[in-house]
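ok so I'm stuck.
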Amino acid sequence: MGIISVNQRLINGFTLLELIVTLAIVGITMSIAVPSLGFKVDENRVIGAAEQIYQDLLYARSEAVKSNSDITLSFTQNSSWCYGINATGVCDCGSAGSCTINGKNKTGSYEDYSNTSLTVSSNINGANFDPSRGVIEKTNSPVTGSITITGVNVSATINMNVLGRPSICSNDFSKYPSC
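replied:
not stuck anymore, here's the structure
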């Protein structure tokens, strides 16, 4: 008789109490997982933006030396930030096709990295990569500066040294050295 009742229970499914306990466990697990997931999304946005700007700066520097011509950096800092890198002077990163190198669009914006903000040192905005040395110059003088991407809870900074080489640092991510 005991075997029959076990088989009948398997056929009938879960009891109401078992269903409530299962839903409670799933609810508790989700309430723990969802906030940490949101934090990870914020982290990934900041890392993605910082890495993209870093790669575009390396590309611009190498193109300046390769093509033996100035490459200009243009940044717009507001709630709808953007940046552009151009071979023919300052460009408007908000206008399609305005910022190009060798016919390739070289822009980035908040649209790809929502809930982030951009802060740029004034001496970098409008500066050029010098073609002979690969350094960043403004009015024929080498400059240094930084570009900071900030998310809801984290930030990363791209520093430009006097030799024109970018590096990423952050006090929030262990994958980068501290600033």
